[in-house]
Amino acid sequence: SKKRSINNFSFFEYSMIEEIERKVHIENELHGNLKDTAIHFVVQPQFDSTNNEVIGVEVLTRWIHPKYGYITPPEFIGIADNSGRIEELTKYLICEVFSKVSKWIQDYGFNKPVAINITPKLLGNRKFFNDLIHFIQFYNIPPQMVDIEITENANLDTDQNILSNIAFCRKYGIRLSLDDFGTGYSKLADLVDFPIDKLKIDKYFVDKIGKETNAELILHTFMNLAKGLKCDVLAEGVETKEQVDYLNSLGLTYFQGYYFSKPVSLEEFEQTYLINN
Ligand code: C2E
Ligand code: CA
Ligand code: CA
Ligand code: CA
């Protein structure tokens, strides 16, 4: 009926306006003082399955908004990246986390790499990397404890700014990890010349273990590639013992995933892995 379609239309219109309002609201808050937002940071430990020891942590950003509730990182990271605020947000993360990590170093002799996600856009920004060095010095963090996670989607082989920033990180001894490995665009051959410490195999492939022989074949190939590149390899999003056992059988022993630990607050990480050890 006519009435109904009018109602549907106005509902559609209304939700579109809400959607736009939400985006503008989020963007405005990202442009304000980040300390005034509910943005905070958690860490997900990474493990070596041969001894169950923590080999590092990845920092992940969380935003439980007073009005919108949980906002997914891809949504607000995307908005920050597109509206010129990713640099500020990432520097906020670095300062918050480094101040904690410097305390962990002093109090517990913590010495494991702390991984930070860098968007392809930020990867080309030299000012950001100069600031990163300042923060490393200010908080007294050994550069080898800083692990920069970059995704394959970045134009790793063609963007000169990116290449020069990667060389800059190398010079200071900062680690580099290739995130979401297998899902991006990088031509595998180009990786041979690319200085990388760790490949992080995406959950996409881990999820297919025991289900698709093709994916298992690909995992074999990744392991051989990592061996050839002499870099570490870690599997992401590992949720089951079956996945761990299968990857172990390929010689992979570095893991990150709910099977070992969900992301936890900095306080919980300290309590569980530093104080009680
Ligand atoms: P990512 O870098 O691949 O991070 C791993 C994601 O997988 C995280 O989602 C983590 O919570 C989730 N995860 C880890 N283990 C498991 C598992 O066993 N099962 C399942 N289902 N999920 C698992 P999260 O925190 O929602 O982040 C999503 C993406 O958002 C990240 O993917 C990363 O690309 C981006 N992101 C998050 N925080 C930041 C940040 O501070 N800066 C930037 N640039 N990107 C960020
Ligand atoms: Ca990551
Ligand atoms: Ca990843
Ligand atoms: Ca992923």
From TrEMBL:
It comes from Psychrobacillus psychrotolerans. Transmembrane segments: none annotated. This is Diguanylate cyclase (GGDEF) domain-containing protein. The lineage of its organism: Bacteria, Bacillati, Bacillota, Bacilli, Bacillales. Residues 23-277 form the EAL domain. The chain holds residues 386 to 662 of 662 of the full protein.
